[in-house]
Amino acid sequence: MAAVGEPARATALEVDEPAWRTLEYFALTRALIASALVLSVVALGSGPAGWHATPVAIGSLVYFALSALLAVVAIYVRQRFFAQVALQIAVDLIVISSLLMLGGGSRTGVTILYLLPLAGASLLLPTSAVFFVCALAVLALLIDAVLRLLDLEGSSAIVFQAGLYGAALFAVAALLRFLASRLAAQERLAQSRGRMIENQLEINRLVIAQMEQGAIVVDSATRVRANNRAARVLLGLGAEAQLTGRQLTEFETLAPLSAAFQRWIADLAQRGEARSESTVALPDLKLRARFVRPQTTSSDEFAIFLEDVRRVEERAQQLKLAAMGRLTASIAHEIRNPLGAIGHAAQLLCEDVRDPSAQRLASIVRENTQRLNRLVDDVLRAARREPPLGDDIELASYLAAWRDEFVRDRGLDPALVALDAAPGLRVRFEHSHLRQVLYNLVDNALRYASGRPGSVQLLAEAAPDERASAYLWIFDDGPGVTADMSANLFEPFFSTGARGTGLGLYMAREFCIVNRAELAHAVRRGSERAGFVIRLSPGAGARLDTAGFLDTMPPP
After folding, report:
1. pTM for this one?
2. Which stretches in the chain have pLDDT values below 50?
3. Which residues of 500-527 are buried (b: 16+ CB within 10 A; e: fewer)?
């Protein structure tokens, strides 16, 4: 029986707990009514000479004994549901009909006891069975009336009275069945809604437990009522830390959060309203805390939602980088056509002119056009994250050739850029990529250098650990980088110059990443000079461990 009111459609294995509970209540009610019937019979049958064992009294005692026995069976024996229901109703019909015939017919008031089996049938049996039980009760009334009429114990009015009782029983049975059906429907609806609420609560718990945003429920005294794993992790307490039942003020590291919440509570109490969002800074962790009050004014609980601002900034950075990549690829593609035309014109000019100086100028145009074309290809490959060629480079000779080319193209004094490269250092880096990285870094150094000889220095040295091949430093004697600027040095479009694009250092870092190297700004260990360093690593996936070979950043 899936629900009360439709038991005939289910097997005994399908009878649910509410149906058994209804049967227990019905059995206990029968036992209670039977005990009341016994007490009334005993009270009415007692006289000066004592109690007389009349047939009605004996029948009442038998009825009480059977009702009590069936009640015990219904409570402790959870088997053969419909057999128990049928047995209890059959006992009611037989005993009540016997009492009716032994006690003098319907005039004794025994007829009202037929409401007991009718009520039980309405609650536990289908509609057809209910009216079948009612028909049996009415048939017993009519048989009793006819027998008394034949024995000349009453007039024809007794048959009419029995008919009225029968009609009343049918009406009461129909009403009880209707009410029982409505009750069963409401119970099924309540059970369904209860299961839906339980499922929804379980889903809510699962969502809250798995969400990246931290959630804490606290009272006005900052005592935590509930929290999720993300909140504990964001607050630096550990995933398995016990936070429920404790106050936020107990944690020294959470003092900014508890202070901001208490200010919000005070503001809410004074003005009846307050800002629903407040940014809170915690040691080593930047959080955004949003305080929310439930809509019910009687609630003494408040919700705190925590969000890691760094993740928001990372998502924004990813979107910005994606947009910048598409823009860079589009610009690089459009530059190819004019570069091709310039290169073709320079080649024709070299073939037509005979003046050596003109030929030299035309060759310079042609070389730089080819270099720009290679740069466009490199930018497109870096945007697509294509693997580099991995050229084998002898660092000292490569840097010397590159410096000569750089000072020639820029028209600089060769003494301006000093070079100190240990011989025999070999690294794997694509030629064009390393050339462009050096152009960007040295151009940046020249922008802030004093211009004296040796104001810009290239230093190549062997790596102090086995994870790298060499370290390539770029120093200048400029004012240096402040601590505030160091966090954004390699961000796209970040520039300290009014005319800078903010893409040079970003592209240099991207080229290094593609070649399994890493670019950073730090202080060289053993000296006080700060500059850019390229960690040239021979292995794939190596990352820069600044604690292993670099000192801390210089003070601003």
Report:
1. 0.43
2. 1-13, 47-50, 539-556
3. eeebbbbbbbbbbebbbbbbbbbbbeee
